[in-house]
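Obj: model holo form, ligand = arginine.
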Amino acid sequence: MAEKVVLAYSGGLDTSVAIRWIAENYHMDVIALMVDVGSERDLPAIQQKALKVGAVKSLVVDARELFVKHFVFPALKADALYEGQYPLATALARPLIVKLMVDAANEEGAAAVAHGCTGKGNDQVRFDVSVFALAPHLKIIAPAREWGMTREEEIAYAQKHDIPVSVGSAYSIDVNLWGRSIECGILEDPWAEPPEEVFAWTRAPQDAPDKPSYVEIGFERGIPVSLNAKNLDSVSLIQQLNELAGEHGVGRIDHVENRLVGIKSREVYEAPAATVLLIAHKALEAMTLSREQLRFKEKVALEYADLIYNGLWFTALHQDLAAYVESSQRHVTGTVRVKLCKGKATVVGRKSPKSLYSFGLATYDKGDEFDQSASVGFIHIWGLPVKTQARVQGVEQPESEDGGRRRERKEGG
Ligand code: ARG
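Output (holo structure tokens):
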């Protein structure tokens, strides 16, 4: 009996050709696994296609809720944004796909798992390293990294084996609930403005309604639970927000990013819900966390985004950081009001039962509770080392009117 392999199947050309190629070159039975993380595709058709091109079994798993609960929301709580731009949609889905592949491999008694990644990208790293962490005994097959076919050769191979080749888009597109990632084609020229055709979820900002929309997002312990005062399940909340914000042209991102494998690449993202939720979440944290918590959390956010991007989801470091992030969210509860207009999302209001904002302390009007006279003593102590250092060592200053440059003052001067 032939050994079995579970292949992460998308229905596209690469993974369809992979089914045939693995059977031919490894003499294994291929079990196709389509993991639905909100890819908006015709799942029954994809399931059939896998069988048609030679899989012995074709599985489809609806993993949308798992994806949001265990991957998207933890990343949101961490404020994870790679290089300050990319909300990490593709990167977040990879470890979940591996987890489900490994489950299927165990269930089916498979000896290997396979994926359609090339040898140039981040996704191969995320897949392989996640397999190392969860099931190091499984062999990993990566046809697109191994076969050495050019695009033309791959298409010829497909045609020879009756694998449907759709009149392909010029782009490579990956889609899930947290965002769309688009690369290749004209986008490989970093000077070229992304053509309108690459976008599917967002209106061009100049064509968006002139009248703004407002959306109120309710958070509980860092997790969004309601939209405009209506409680929603996590998947619906993200779907509805993608539509609302996309309608106003919010969430287009044009990023020249640093891949883990050392290549700079230009990727365009569409992430309306992610864009809105990330700014709303940060606005609520600004109300409910101390200055020191916010500062430390910013460092954690950088590390957290990097580890997601770099394929280190299933690691001890992640477990440790996630515990910190979780603890930090215990009072991040409240509502944030966001204005959507012409491609921009702006936080215009926030409130929280755990707010640290005190009107009595902040106001310049009636009701001021702040003792201004106490500031004198505070500033005396705060400024003491500045005074001392300036006296002893002097202080660099901008040039004065007379053109002279008063750099140093005499000791004790
Ligand atoms: N650059 C993104 C990442 O590494 C997305 C990769 C997949 N993009 C695509 N268009 N297929 O996470």
